[in-house]
Amino acid sequence: MRRSSLFGKFVNTAVAAAAALIVSHSTAHAQTAPAPACGVALDKAALSVGVGEANWNINVTSAATCAWSAASDSDWLVVKSTVPAPAVGNGYAKVRAIANTTSPEKRTGHFFVNGVVYTVTQGGCGTSCTGAVATPPPSPSTTCAVTLDKMALTVGVGEANW
User: Which fold, 40-128?
Assistant: First the structure.
């Protein structure tokens, strides 16, 4: 017995996947072509900013149908928004480096746009740090001395003096 029709649904989550449904007698095969690479180019690979807050744009060049996103690996680097929204084709990411009030030395973090790395180095706050600065624990050789002026305290009913 030969089937005259075949109904089904083929779903591929890749952005621009091509699908073909081949019907051969009573067997159906689905084939997909891999989604084309959606590469992006950035206007710079790195930027150095001062110790204060800094705001700027990372310019992104990509194909007109290429979706892209921006993220950061540091809590002090923030992606504020993308233009256009949603980020497809050429555009830019509005980004910010929060003022460095905690790290006496310079610090480095990264933005990622579709896997392309954008490195940011921010100046250290030196001796003017105002945030919570981590201090190293005392070394194991540090000793503490305690001096007591009284070894025992006895308190009776009434007045207590020590």
Answer: Immunoglobulin-like (2.60.40)
